[in-house]
Amino acid sequence: MGPRGQDDEQDGQRVSDEQAGLRTDTTENESPTPSAPTPPSPPSGADERVAAVRRVGAVGRRWRQGTQLAACAALLAVAMTGGALALGSDRAPASAPVAAAATDPGVLGGGDLDASITALQAHLRAQPKDSGSWATLGLAYVEQARTKGDPARYPQAEQALRRSLALAPAGDQALAGRAALAAARHDFKNALGFADAALRQNPYSERALSSRIDALVELGRYADADEAAKTADARRPGVPVFTRYAYVHELRGDVGTARRVLEQALSAATSPGDTAYVATQLGQLAWNQGDHKTAVTYYARALAADDGYLPALEGRARARAAGGDRATAIKDMEALVARAPLPGPLVELGELYEARGAAGDAARARRQYALVDAWTALARANGVNADLDTALAAADHGDKRAALRAARAEWARRHTVHTADALAWALHVNGRDTEALPYARRATATGYRNAAFLYHRGMIELATGRRAAGRASLAAALKLNPGFSPLGAARARKALEGAE
């Protein structure tokens, strides 16, 4: 499905200032927190989930009451899949359109996104027909939603971008913005359609070129993503394109090329935002290969550039846990989820509690997993497809049947290594290992070096009677990254010992 054109234009003409985030009766950058939909009543744990929703809402209110945006240098990864968008050096975010001349085009690259949004809101009250600034505001909301973990900004972003397209229906800035918004909501088919529409207007749009690569990767069209990365590199070489080019190679198992390209990007980085983003990508690459010491070094470099950059804080905590410093890792992760209660960190913290096993840790872990349910409810209320997050978390720590439903739904939309792995594991925990095996094999077929994928494949192989293959997969997982998961690594070792 591509961009909706006329529908968006007509809708955009009806957008009110309140819908688009230009309310004059609120404090700076305050937006109403949407009420989370009431989930179906489960047989047990309902009180914990209700409390979790309230905790997420409380965190959101604290953010809006004055927490400074710490990670405005780069967008968070899309659904933890590597589709993050970087900032360019001394300019607007790579995913954000440049404002019209009436608004400083560098305002969003100055390090204070909240102040930039306030300035854009004030400008648009005076100049409501400035389509470029509407586009910039829309992308600023997308970035704010991601970096603060607050999906309530996505509806405002959509309204601002629709207003821009109502004023300038062929505006490549707003079309590229719609691509980024669709990707943020995990609607990758529409992300590709909007990116292509933007590139028809401006073949050199860095934001559209980058979003096109992201969409193709997340749709599992890896060969097309490789071609798109080459095209983007020829047209607009720079940090945003370099990082995507590297990820495409990593998915094919070409870690050496991915590392070299990221090192090139890091050497080319001139802004704190670029440095934090690329150094974090290098840290993640090292962590995936089990080089936890190098990973911590890169995360330290990222945090030296931006001491509040959330992906680097998360990566450092994971690397410390994998390296054996569980106590520090728990403290780091607790601080992180207090600021950004997102599924990945919440599950990691819950598993760290379980692995520690101290008095009260089981209850602490359950609270983290309940918060994942709360985040999912809030995300869906604001138009975010959260099926992959649901499948991954619920398979191990929730409703296994719900995990399978979510994984099947996600697989119906896109065939990536990540959705193949999620579906394989959801099938496994539901006792359907024969059906799971082809998906586990598909998850590892591209050469992507991921210890969790190998662990899942090994457990499924053992469950289907393929003992030799299962032992090989589990051994490969532990050799690649012996600390890939607080609980998974221990279970892999136990299963390997039992299969010998």
Tell me what the structure shows:
The protein has 500 residues and is mostly helical. It is built from 24 helices and no strands. It has helices at 6-13, 46-64, 113-126, 131-148, 153-167, 172-184, 188-201, 206-218, 222-235, 239-251, 255-268, 272-288, 292-305, 310-322, 326-339, 343-356, 361-381, 387-397, 400-413, 417-429, 433-443, 451-463, 467-480, 488-499. Helix 19 (400-413) runs antiparallel to helix 20 (417-429). The chain starts with 5 loop residues before the first helix and ends with a helix. 58% of the residues are buried. The model is unreliable at 1-15 and 24-107 (pLDDT under 50).
Please sum up the structure shown:
By secondary structure, the chain is mostly helical.
Question: Care to count the β-strands?
Answer: 0
Radius of gyration: 22 Å
Strand content: under 5%
The H-and-E topology, N to C, reads as HHHHHHHHHHHHHHHHHHHHHHHH
Structural class: mainly alpha
Main sheet specs: none
Share of helix, binned: 55-70%
* Broad shape: globular
Mean pLDDT: 81
